[in-house]
Every structure is written in structure tokens, then in C-alpha cells.
């Protein structure tokens, strides 16, 4: 089922799943840490205005990431199915078609972003005090965005053939490059010019360039099935039918990401009503929850890839085994982290907050919502296995319903009843309802469908 191991029974599935999962979790944690480290460099070396200038780019980046993550989600499912069918020609066709769309779309975004950066930032209401810093930073980040997009797409596709180790190595290279180059470019050391605010943007682009060069030579040297040789590169072209399927699978993922982001902004506005301490506690709790969600989301990604490979191989009977394995791992991995977070909640909050009263508030909020991450993980697994078969619209609608009709209105209602804690009760309720809805649709509707490969 993966690049290295076929599935022959539950025990082998467990082993293959675990071998694939561990590097995937490590990659997600490394990527999150890289953003944190970059922000620390900017804040420590350039000050508060620079942090504000960089932060303005986050909503722009999120919209762009919705586009590219949607593409990668669609491509990974098709690559997994083609790989499961042992059809390397189809694998190359999917990779080539996805890279073509990525390069065209990325170049278009880069051009428009560089030209209209100032107007985009003004539309976002950027403070005039930081506008002069934000414009060059955003222009340089958008100019290098096609490389970021290609990197994300290629590492996602590698996972589609069961290789989660190479993306981990590449991720380590981008982060290592950033750690070395960012402070050098900001301060202008070793005879290099002092670049200030555009230093982190250039360092980011250099990091992804080095990672892509590494992938080119490393994959060719390993004789990897996805090595970028002439056989693969000749497929980098527009293929209408494939592009349509990739977009059909990917667009719902992008819409879901944007909906989640907008709902998050609404919740932040609600939290802000309770003052700075509440906002600080909200930020700290979210940081902890993010790290606990990584294994759950990684397990869901792994389940989607294993399911896609099973469908491609014509072994739909293995889907129940994939589902059971993923749900069990969610209980073990996510459950263990939830228990540890309960036990060490005070110390986790103290990593982000210095005020003892706010630490206690953060603990109280964390206690309310922590357990529900288990349900969040299970819902992601159900949705990911359905996505592997091409069923994407209903899981997306269920997710949006949970956010817009349960989480947001209940956050308003519960906060009227129970104050700040009510917002976190709404989060927990939304996660449980999401899991129940995805699980019911999975068992009562989707499992009764005839599962066929998409390509």
C-alpha cells in the first residue's frame, strides 16, 4: 500500500501506517515551529512594527494556502489511486497536470500580488505606521510564492505514493536554511547587505529553492518513482479531464479552509469583548490545541492515502481495516497527548503566559475543550476516507454546518449564559456534532455506495 510495504493483514497495516505516520507528524510540527522561529527573529531584531507588518500577510497567505492545499488534496487522492493500481503513467499524468496548474496559478498570483500589494494591504485596513514595511515584505513573499506552491504540491504528492520520509528531510532543510539565513539577511552580516524586513521573505524563498534543488537530485539519485526526469516532465501540461477531477476534489477543501478561517475571526472578535487577559488565554490555548491536533490531522491524511491506494488496487474491502486502524491510532496518539495536556496544563500555559491569573484562566478553558479533540480527530478520519473515493461535497457541507450553524451561534448563545467559558463549550459541542454527523453519513450512506477508482 505504501512505497515500501504492501498490506497483508491488520498487523502489516499497523506497521505500514506507523512507519508512514511518524515522519508525517514530525513534518507538521517542524513546519509550525518554523513559523514561530521566523516570528521570533523578526520581533527580536526588528521590533513591534515589523511584527505587525509581517502579521498583515497572514490572511493573504491563508487564502493562497487554501488554493494550493485544495490542489494538493485532489492530486494526492488521484496519485494514491494510480499508485495502488501500479499505473506509473497515470501517476505521472496527475503529477504533471497538477504542477502545470500550480505553476500557471502561482505565477498569476505572484504577478498580481507584486503589482497590487499596496492596494491589497490598504483594503485589509493596514495601519499607515507599518504600511511602508508591509508593502516590500508582501511583494517579496508573493514573488517567491510559486516556489512555495510547487514545494507543497510535490511533497504532498510524494506522500501519495507512501513516502513521508523525503518530505520530512526537505522540511528540515527549509527550516535549517531559514534559521541560518534569516538573521544574516536581516542584520547584513558576512559582507551581505542589511535587508531588514525583506530579509525573512528572501530567506523563505531561498529555503524553498534549496529544498526543491535537493528533491531534484535526491529523487533522481534514489531512482524514486516520482523523480523529476524526462518521463515525468513531459507530462507537465494542461490535461482538461484530469484538471477537472483534481479541482472537483480540491475546491471543497479550499472552501472549507476559508470557512474555518472566517469563523475563527468571528470567535476572536467575541473573545476580545472579554478583555486582553481573555485574548491572551485564547491565544495560548489555541497554541496547545494546535500541537495536539497535529497527530489527529496526520492520521487523517495517512488514512486518506492508504484508502486511495486500496481503491486504486481494487481492494475496497481493505477500507474498513484502514478506518479501524486510523480510529484506534487516534485514540492512542491523540488520547495520550490529551491526557498529558491535562496533567501538565499549568506548565503548558506558562510557556505562553507570565501572569499567574491568566495561566489559571487558560487552564480552565483548556480543560473544557481538550477531550473533544478526540472527536475532532475521528471526524477528520471519516471525511478523509470518503474523500479518497471522490466523495467530497457532503463531508464539506457537514463541516460547514458544524462551524456556521453550531460553533458560531452556540458561541454567542453560550457566552451570554456562561461568559467566556461558554465559547469553549461551543467548540466542544461543535467537534462532537461534527464527529456524529460525519460518522453517521460514513456508516449509513457512504459505506453502501459502490466504490470505484476515479482514474
From TrEMBL:
This is MATE family efflux transporter. It is a multi-pass membrane protein. It comes from Acinetobacter pragensis. Keywords: Cell membrane, Membrane, Transmembrane, Transmembrane helix, Transport. It is found in: Cell inner membrane. It comes from the Bacteria. The keyword tRNA processing does not apply. GO terms for cellular component: plasma membrane. Its main location: membrane. The keyword Mitochondrion does not apply. Pfam families: MatE. GO terms for molecular function: antiporter activity; xenobiotic transmembrane transporter activity. The chain crosses the membrane at residues 12-30, 50-79, 91-117, 137-157, 169-191, 197-219, 245-271, 291-314, 326-345, 365-385, 397-418, 424-445.
Amino acid at each position: 500500500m505504501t512505497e515500501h510495504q504492501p498490506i497483508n493483514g491488520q498487523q502489516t497495516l499497523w506497521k505500514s501506517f506507523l512507519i508512514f505516520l511518524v515522519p508525517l507528524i514530525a513534518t507538521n510540527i517542524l513546519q509550525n515551529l518554523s513559523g514561530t522561529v521566523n516570528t521570533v527573529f523578526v520581533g527580536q531584531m526588528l521590533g513591534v512594527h515589523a511584527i505587525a507588518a509581517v502579521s498583515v500577510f497572514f490572511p493573504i497567505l491563508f487564502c493562497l494556502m487554501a488554493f494550493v492545499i485544495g490542489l494538493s488534496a485532489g492530486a494526492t487522492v488521484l496519485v494514491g489511486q494510480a499508485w495502488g493500481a501500479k499505473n506509473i503513467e497515470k501517476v505521472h499524468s496527475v503529477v504533471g497536470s497538477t504542477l502545470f496548474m500550480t505553476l500557471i496559478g502561482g505565477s498569476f498570483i505572484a504577478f498580481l500580488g507584486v503589482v497590487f500589494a499596496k492596494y491589497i494591504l490598504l483594503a485589509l485596513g493596514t495601519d499607515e505606521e507599518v504600511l511602508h514595511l508591509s508593502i516590500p515584505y508582501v511583494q517579496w513573499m508573493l514573488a517567491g510564492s510559486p516556489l512555495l506552491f510547487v514545494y507543497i504540491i510535490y511533497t504532498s504528492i510524494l506522500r501519495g505514493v507512501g513516502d513521508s520520509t523525503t518530505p520530512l528531510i526537505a522540511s528540515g532543510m527549509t527550516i535549517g536554511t531559514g534559521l541560518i539565513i534569516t538573521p544574516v539577511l536581516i542584520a547584513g552580516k558576512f559582507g551581505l547587505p542589511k535587508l531588514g524586513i525583506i530579509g525573512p521573505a528572501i530567506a523563505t524563498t531561498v529555503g524553498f529553492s534549496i529544498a526543491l534543488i535537493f528533491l531534484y537530485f535526491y529523487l533522481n539519485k534514489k531512482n524514486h518513482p516520482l523523480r523529476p526526469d524526462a518521463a515525468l516532465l513531459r507530462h507537465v501540461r494542461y490535461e482538461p479531464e484530469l484538471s477537472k477531477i483534481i479541482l472537483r476534489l480540491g475546491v471543497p477543501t479550499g472552501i472549507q479552509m476559508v470557512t474555518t478561517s472566517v469563523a475563527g475571526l468571528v470567535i476572536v472578535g467575541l473573545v476580545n469583548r472579554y478583555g486582553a487577559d481573555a485574548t491572551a488565554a485564547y491565544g495560548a490555548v489555541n497554541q496547545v490545541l494546535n500541537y495536539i491536533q497535529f497527530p489527529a490531522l496526520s492520521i487523517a491524511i495517512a488514512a486518506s492515502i492508504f484508502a486511495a491506494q486500496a481503491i486504486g488496487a481494487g481492494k475496497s474491502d481493505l477500507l474498513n481495516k484502514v478506518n479501524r486502524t486510523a480510529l484506534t491510532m487516534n485514540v492512542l496518539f491523540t488520547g495520550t497527548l490529551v491526557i498529558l495536556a491535562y496533567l501538565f496544563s499549568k506548565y503548558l500555559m506558562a510557556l505562553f503566559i507570565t501572569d499567574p491569573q491568566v495561566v489559571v484562566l487558560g487552564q480552565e478553558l483548556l480543560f473544557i475543550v481538550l477531550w473533544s479533540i478526540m472527536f475532532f480527530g475521528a471526524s477528520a478520519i471519516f471525511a478523509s476516507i470518503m474523500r479518497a473515493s471522490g466523495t467530497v461535497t457532503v463531508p464539506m457541507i457537514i463541516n460547514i454546518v458544524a462551524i456556521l450553524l453550531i460553533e458560531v451561534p452556540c458561541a454567542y448563545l453560550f457566552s451570554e449564559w456562561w461568559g467566556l467559558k461558554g465559547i469553549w463549550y461551543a467548540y466542544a459541542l461543535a467537534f462532537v456534532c461534527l464527529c456524529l454527523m460525519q460518522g453517521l453519513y460514513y456508516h449509513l450512506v457512504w459505506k453502501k455506495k459502490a466504490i470505484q477508482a476515479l482514474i
